[in-house]
Protein backbone atom coordinates (compact mmCIF):
# COMPACT_ATOMS: atom_id res chain seq x y z
CA UNK A 1 0.00 0.00 0.00
CA UNK A 2 1.16 3.52 -0.75
CA UNK A 3 0.71 6.23 1.88
CA UNK A 4 -0.18 9.89 1.64
CA UNK A 5 0.09 12.94 3.86
CA UNK A 6 -3.07 15.00 4.09
CA UNK A 7 -2.14 18.53 3.14
CA UNK A 8 0.44 20.15 5.41
CA UNK A 9 -0.88 18.50 8.54
CA UNK A 10 1.50 15.60 8.83
CA UNK A 11 -1.36 13.09 9.09
CA UNK A 12 -0.10 10.13 7.07
CA UNK A 13 -2.64 7.55 5.94
CA UNK A 14 -3.00 4.75 3.43
CA UNK A 15 -3.65 6.00 -0.11
CA UNK A 16 -6.93 4.07 -0.04
CA UNK A 17 -9.01 4.30 3.10
CA UNK A 18 -11.98 2.22 4.19
CA UNK A 19 -15.37 3.86 4.54
CA UNK A 20 -17.17 1.80 7.15
CA UNK A 21 -20.67 3.34 7.11
CA UNK A 22 -22.17 0.64 4.91
CA UNK A 23 -21.35 -2.06 7.43
CA UNK A 24 -24.04 -0.62 9.71
CA UNK A 25 -26.10 1.97 7.89
CA UNK A 26 -27.86 2.84 4.61
CA UNK A 27 -26.91 -0.29 2.64
CA UNK A 28 -29.47 -2.74 3.94
CA UNK A 29 -29.54 -4.49 7.30
CA UNK A 30 -26.28 -4.26 9.27
CA UNK A 31 -23.70 -6.86 8.35
CA UNK A 32 -22.80 -9.65 10.74
CA UNK A 33 -20.61 -8.22 13.51
CA UNK A 34 -18.19 -11.15 13.55
CA UNK A 35 -17.76 -11.02 9.76
CA UNK A 36 -17.05 -7.30 9.82
CA UNK A 37 -14.60 -7.70 12.70
CA UNK A 38 -12.68 -10.21 10.61
CA UNK A 39 -12.86 -7.96 7.54
CA UNK A 40 -11.46 -4.99 9.46
CA UNK A 41 -8.57 -7.14 10.71
CA UNK A 42 -7.94 -8.28 7.13
CA UNK A 43 -7.88 -4.63 6.03
CA UNK A 44 -5.18 -3.78 8.56
CA UNK A 45 -3.20 -6.83 7.48
CA UNK A 46 -3.38 -5.64 3.84
CA UNK A 47 -2.04 -2.19 4.70
CA UNK A 48 -5.15 -0.09 5.22
CA UNK A 49 -4.46 2.43 7.98
CA UNK A 50 -7.35 4.88 7.53
CA UNK A 51 -10.85 3.98 8.74
CA UNK A 52 -13.85 6.28 8.48
CA UNK A 53 -16.97 6.26 10.64
CA UNK A 54 -19.36 8.69 12.36
CA UNK A 55 -21.35 8.85 15.57
CA UNK A 56 -24.54 8.83 13.47
CA UNK A 57 -23.92 5.63 11.48
CA UNK A 58 -26.27 3.08 12.95
CA UNK A 59 -29.79 1.77 13.24
CA UNK A 60 -32.98 2.58 15.12
CA UNK A 61 -32.02 0.01 17.74
CA UNK A 62 -28.41 1.16 17.95
CA UNK A 63 -27.76 4.63 16.48
CA UNK A 64 -24.02 4.34 17.19
CA UNK A 65 -23.49 0.81 15.87
CA UNK A 66 -20.64 1.64 13.51
CA UNK A 67 -18.42 3.37 16.05
CA UNK A 68 -18.94 0.48 18.47
CA UNK A 69 -18.01 -2.01 15.75
CA UNK A 70 -14.78 -0.17 14.93
CA UNK A 71 -13.91 0.38 18.57
CA UNK A 72 -13.97 -3.32 19.33
CA UNK A 73 -12.57 -4.59 16.02
CA UNK A 74 -9.70 -2.12 15.71
CA UNK A 75 -8.63 -1.99 19.35
CA UNK A 76 -5.80 -4.53 18.81
CA UNK A 77 -4.35 -2.35 16.03
CA UNK A 78 -4.95 1.11 17.48
CA UNK A 79 -1.30 2.19 17.42
CA UNK A 80 -1.01 1.29 13.70
CA UNK A 81 -4.06 3.07 12.30
CA UNK A 82 -5.91 6.38 12.04
CA UNK A 83 -9.61 6.58 12.83
CA UNK A 84 -11.78 9.38 11.50
CA UNK A 85 -15.21 10.04 12.95
CA UNK A 86 -17.74 12.87 12.79
CA UNK A 87 -20.04 15.04 14.91
CA UNK A 88 -22.81 17.48 14.19
CA UNK A 89 -25.81 15.63 12.76
CA UNK A 90 -28.64 13.30 13.67
CA UNK A 91 -30.87 11.49 11.20
CA UNK A 92 -34.50 12.52 11.12
CA UNK A 93 -37.09 9.76 11.64
CA UNK A 94 -34.58 6.93 11.31
CA UNK A 95 -37.30 4.29 11.56
CA UNK A 96 -38.97 5.42 8.33
CA UNK A 97 -38.01 3.93 4.94
CA UNK A 98 -36.14 6.01 2.39
CA UNK A 99 -33.25 8.45 2.51
CA UNK A 100 -33.30 10.22 5.85
CA UNK A 101 -32.86 13.95 6.19
CA UNK A 102 -30.14 15.09 8.59
CA UNK A 103 -30.54 17.70 11.30
CA UNK A 104 -27.47 19.75 12.16
CA UNK A 105 -26.33 20.73 15.65
CA UNK A 106 -22.80 21.98 16.30
CA UNK A 107 -23.31 23.90 19.51
CA UNK A 108 -20.12 23.72 21.63
CA UNK A 109 -21.81 21.74 24.41
CA UNK A 110 -23.10 19.24 21.85
CA UNK A 111 -19.64 18.84 20.33
CA UNK A 112 -18.25 18.18 23.81
CA UNK A 113 -20.81 15.47 24.47
CA UNK A 114 -20.20 13.97 21.05
CA UNK A 115 -16.45 13.69 21.40
CA UNK A 116 -16.73 11.99 24.78
CA UNK A 117 -19.25 9.52 23.39
CA UNK A 118 -17.10 8.75 20.36
CA UNK A 119 -13.98 8.26 22.45
CA UNK A 120 -15.86 5.81 24.66
CA UNK A 121 -17.37 3.83 21.78
CA UNK A 122 -14.12 3.77 19.83
CA UNK A 123 -12.28 2.59 22.96
CA UNK A 124 -9.52 5.14 22.50
CA UNK A 125 -8.13 8.23 24.18
CA UNK A 126 -7.88 10.26 20.98
CA UNK A 127 -9.55 10.72 17.60
CA UNK A 128 -7.07 11.04 14.74
CA UNK A 129 -9.37 13.08 12.49
CA UNK A 130 -12.62 14.64 13.73
CA UNK A 131 -14.99 16.07 11.11
CA UNK A 132 -17.89 18.43 11.39
CA UNK A 133 -20.30 16.20 9.49
CA UNK A 134 -22.36 19.08 8.11
CA UNK A 135 -22.18 22.78 8.86
CA UNK A 136 -24.72 24.26 11.26
CA UNK A 137 -26.06 27.62 10.05
CA UNK A 138 -26.83 28.57 13.65
CA UNK A 139 -23.18 28.23 14.76
CA UNK A 140 -20.37 30.36 13.34
CA UNK A 141 -17.37 28.52 11.88
CA UNK A 142 -15.06 30.40 14.25
CA UNK A 143 -16.98 28.96 17.20
CA UNK A 144 -16.65 25.39 15.92
CA UNK A 145 -12.97 25.90 15.13
CA UNK A 146 -12.34 27.27 18.63
CA UNK A 147 -13.82 24.14 20.19
CA UNK A 148 -11.61 22.03 17.89
CA UNK A 149 -8.56 24.00 18.99
CA UNK A 150 -9.44 23.27 22.61
CA UNK A 151 -9.93 19.57 21.94
CA UNK A 152 -6.62 19.40 20.08
CA UNK A 153 -4.88 21.15 22.99
CA UNK A 154 -6.44 18.60 25.37
CA UNK A 155 -5.18 15.73 23.19
CA UNK A 156 -8.65 14.31 22.58
CA UNK A 157 -8.47 15.21 18.88
CA UNK A 158 -5.29 15.24 16.77
CA UNK A 159 -6.66 16.76 13.55
CA UNK A 160 -9.98 18.12 12.42
CA UNK A 161 -11.87 18.48 9.17
CA UNK A 162 -15.04 19.59 7.45
CA UNK A 163 -17.58 17.88 5.23
CA UNK A 164 -19.72 19.67 2.65
CA UNK A 165 -18.64 23.15 3.75
CA UNK A 166 -18.54 26.25 1.56
CA UNK A 167 -15.25 27.90 0.65
CA UNK A 168 -16.09 30.88 2.87
CA UNK A 169 -16.85 28.62 5.82
CA UNK A 170 -13.64 26.67 5.22
CA UNK A 171 -11.49 29.79 5.11
CA UNK A 172 -13.04 31.24 8.26
CA UNK A 173 -12.67 28.00 10.20
CA UNK A 174 -9.13 27.41 8.94
CA UNK A 175 -8.04 30.87 10.08
CA UNK A 176 -8.88 29.93 13.69
CA UNK A 177 -7.72 26.30 13.77
CA UNK A 178 -5.98 24.81 10.71
CA UNK A 179 -8.14 22.27 8.90
CA UNK A 180 -6.43 19.00 7.97
CA UNK A 181 -8.93 17.57 5.50
CA UNK A 182 -12.19 18.17 3.69
CA UNK A 183 -14.38 15.13 3.08
CA UNK A 184 -16.81 15.53 0.18
CA UNK A 185 -18.60 13.40 -2.36
CA UNK A 186 -16.42 12.81 -5.43
CA UNK A 187 -16.51 10.39 -8.34
CA UNK A 188 -16.53 10.35 -12.12
CA UNK A 189 -20.27 11.03 -11.82
CA UNK A 190 -19.97 13.70 -9.12
CA UNK A 191 -17.24 16.18 -10.00
CA UNK A 192 -18.63 19.46 -8.68
CA UNK A 193 -16.16 19.50 -5.78
CA UNK A 194 -13.21 19.82 -8.15
CA UNK A 195 -13.89 23.56 -7.85
CA UNK A 196 -12.47 23.30 -4.30
CA UNK A 197 -9.12 21.90 -5.38
CA UNK A 198 -7.31 25.25 -5.91
CA UNK A 199 -8.37 26.40 -2.43
CA UNK A 200 -7.24 23.14 -0.84
CA UNK A 201 -3.92 23.41 -2.66
CA UNK A 202 -3.51 27.00 -1.45
CA UNK A 203 -4.31 26.20 2.18
CA UNK A 204 -2.51 22.86 2.34
CA UNK A 205 -5.59 20.78 3.08
CA UNK A 206 -6.19 17.16 2.08
CA UNK A 207 -9.29 15.90 0.27
CA UNK A 208 -11.09 12.73 1.31
CA UNK A 209 -13.40 11.40 -1.40
CA UNK A 210 -16.48 9.62 -0.13
CA UNK A 211 -18.69 7.61 -2.48
CA UNK A 212 -15.77 7.46 -4.96
CA UNK A 213 -17.51 4.68 -6.92
CA UNK A 214 -20.86 6.52 -7.04
CA UNK A 215 -22.18 4.30 -4.26
CA UNK A 216 -20.83 1.23 -6.04
CA UNK A 217 -22.23 1.80 -9.52
CA UNK A 218 -18.79 2.39 -11.05
CA UNK A 219 -17.63 -1.04 -9.91
CA UNK A 220 -19.73 -2.36 -12.84
CA UNK A 221 -21.12 -5.03 -10.51
CA UNK A 222 -24.75 -3.93 -10.89
CA UNK A 223 -27.32 -4.17 -13.67
CA UNK A 224 -30.79 -2.82 -14.32
CA UNK A 225 -32.26 -6.00 -12.84
CA UNK A 226 -30.76 -5.45 -9.38
CA UNK A 227 -33.16 -4.34 -6.67
CA UNK A 228 -32.58 -3.00 -3.18
CA UNK A 229 -34.61 -3.11 0.01
CA UNK A 230 -36.77 0.01 0.10
CA UNK A 231 -36.94 -0.19 3.90
CA UNK A 232 -33.26 0.32 4.68
CA UNK A 233 -31.13 0.62 1.55
CA UNK A 234 -30.55 4.11 0.15
CA UNK A 235 -29.65 2.66 -3.25
CA UNK A 236 -33.33 1.91 -3.84
CA UNK A 237 -33.84 5.68 -4.07
CA UNK A 238 -30.62 6.77 -5.79
CA UNK A 239 -31.05 8.00 -9.37
CA UNK A 240 -28.01 6.12 -10.68
CA UNK A 241 -29.56 2.77 -9.66
CA UNK A 242 -32.94 3.32 -11.30
CA UNK A 243 -33.62 0.97 -14.20
CA UNK A 244 -33.44 3.63 -16.90
CA UNK A 245 -30.10 4.95 -15.64
CA UNK A 246 -28.18 1.99 -17.00
CA UNK A 247 -29.06 2.97 -20.54
CA UNK A 248 -28.14 6.59 -19.84
CA UNK A 249 -24.74 5.53 -18.52
CA UNK A 250 -23.68 3.28 -21.41
CA UNK A 251 -20.98 5.69 -22.56
CA UNK A 252 -19.54 5.94 -19.05
CA UNK A 253 -19.51 2.17 -18.66
CA UNK A 254 -17.83 1.78 -22.05
CA UNK A 255 -15.13 4.27 -21.05
CA UNK A 256 -14.47 2.39 -17.81
CA UNK A 257 -14.39 -0.97 -19.54
CA UNK A 258 -11.98 0.25 -22.22
CA UNK A 259 -9.61 1.81 -19.66
CA UNK A 260 -9.78 -1.28 -17.46
CA UNK A 261 -8.84 -3.53 -20.36
CA UNK A 262 -5.98 -1.26 -21.38
CA UNK A 263 -4.56 -1.07 -17.84
CA UNK A 264 -5.24 -4.72 -16.93
CA UNK A 265 -7.43 -3.49 -14.10
CA UNK A 266 -11.08 -3.45 -13.06
CA UNK A 267 -13.51 -0.56 -13.58
CA UNK A 268 -13.50 0.13 -9.84
CA UNK A 269 -9.71 0.34 -9.82
CA UNK A 270 -9.75 2.74 -12.76
CA UNK A 271 -12.32 4.94 -10.99
CA UNK A 272 -10.12 5.15 -7.91
CA UNK A 273 -6.81 5.50 -9.76
CA UNK A 274 -8.28 8.40 -11.76
CA UNK A 275 -8.63 10.50 -8.60
CA UNK A 276 -5.47 9.22 -6.93
CA UNK A 277 -3.43 10.35 -9.93
CA UNK A 278 -4.98 13.83 -9.97
CA UNK A 279 -3.50 15.10 -6.71
CA UNK A 280 -1.10 13.60 -4.16
CA UNK A 281 -3.37 14.74 -1.33
CA UNK A 282 -6.57 13.00 -2.46
CA UNK A 283 -7.55 9.85 -0.54
CA UNK A 284 -10.69 7.91 -1.56
CA UNK A 285 -12.55 5.89 1.07
CA UNK A 286 -14.65 3.28 -0.77
CA UNK A 287 -16.76 1.08 1.46
CA UNK A 288 -17.34 -2.65 1.25
CA UNK A 289 -18.48 -5.68 3.21
CA UNK A 290 -16.55 -8.13 1.04
CA UNK A 291 -12.94 -9.30 1.23
CA UNK A 292 -12.64 -9.53 -2.56
CA UNK A 293 -13.62 -5.85 -2.92
CA UNK A 294 -11.20 -4.87 -0.17
CA UNK A 295 -8.40 -6.48 -2.18
CA UNK A 296 -9.64 -5.00 -5.44
CA UNK A 297 -9.82 -1.45 -4.09
CA UNK A 298 -6.34 -1.52 -2.59
CA UNK A 299 -4.98 -2.50 -6.01
CA UNK A 300 -5.96 0.88 -7.42
CA UNK A 301 -2.96 2.43 -5.71
CA UNK A 302 -0.68 0.47 -8.05
CA UNK A 303 -2.25 1.82 -11.25
CA UNK A 304 -0.58 4.78 -12.91
CA UNK A 305 -2.41 7.23 -15.16
CA UNK A 306 -0.40 10.00 -16.79
CA UNK A 307 -1.43 13.65 -16.76
CA UNK A 308 -2.34 13.27 -20.41
CA UNK A 309 -4.50 10.25 -19.69
CA UNK A 310 -6.24 12.09 -16.85
CA UNK A 311 -6.89 15.04 -19.13
CA UNK A 312 -8.35 12.74 -21.76
CA UNK A 313 -10.66 11.08 -19.24
CA UNK A 314 -11.83 14.45 -17.92
CA UNK A 315 -12.56 15.70 -21.42
CA UNK A 316 -14.53 12.56 -22.17
CA UNK A 317 -16.52 12.94 -18.96
CA UNK A 318 -17.19 16.62 -19.69
CA UNK A 319 -18.76 15.72 -23.04
CA UNK A 320 -20.59 12.64 -21.84
CA UNK A 321 -24.30 12.16 -21.24
CA UNK A 322 -24.97 10.26 -18.02
CA UNK A 323 -27.75 9.83 -15.49
CA UNK A 324 -28.19 11.92 -12.39
CA UNK A 325 -26.28 10.72 -9.33
CA UNK A 326 -27.22 10.81 -5.66
CA UNK A 327 -25.96 14.09 -4.20
CA UNK A 328 -26.72 13.57 -0.53
CA UNK A 329 -29.46 13.68 2.08
CA UNK A 330 -31.54 16.77 2.71
CA UNK A 331 -29.92 18.90 5.40
CA UNK A 332 -32.13 20.67 7.92
CA UNK A 333 -31.42 23.17 10.66
CA UNK A 334 -32.39 22.21 14.18
CA UNK A 335 -35.32 23.88 15.84
CA UNK A 336 -34.47 26.87 17.98
UniProtKB/TrEMBL annotation:
Domain of life: Bacteria
GO MF annotation, one: oxidoreductase activity
Positions of the NADP-dependent oxidoreductase domain: 16-317
GO CC annotation terms, alphabetical: cytoplasm
Keywords, in A-Z order: Oxidoreductase
InterPro entries tied to this protein: Aldo-Keto_reductase, NAD(P)_OxRdtase_dom_sf, NADP_OxRdtase_dom
Family annotation (Gene3D superfamilies): NADP-dependent oxidoreductase domain
PANTHER family according to UniProt: AFLATOXIN B1 ALDEHYDE REDUCTASE, ALDO-KETO REDUCTASE
Protein name per its UniProtKB record: Aldo/keto reductase
Species assigned in the record: Marseilla massiliensis
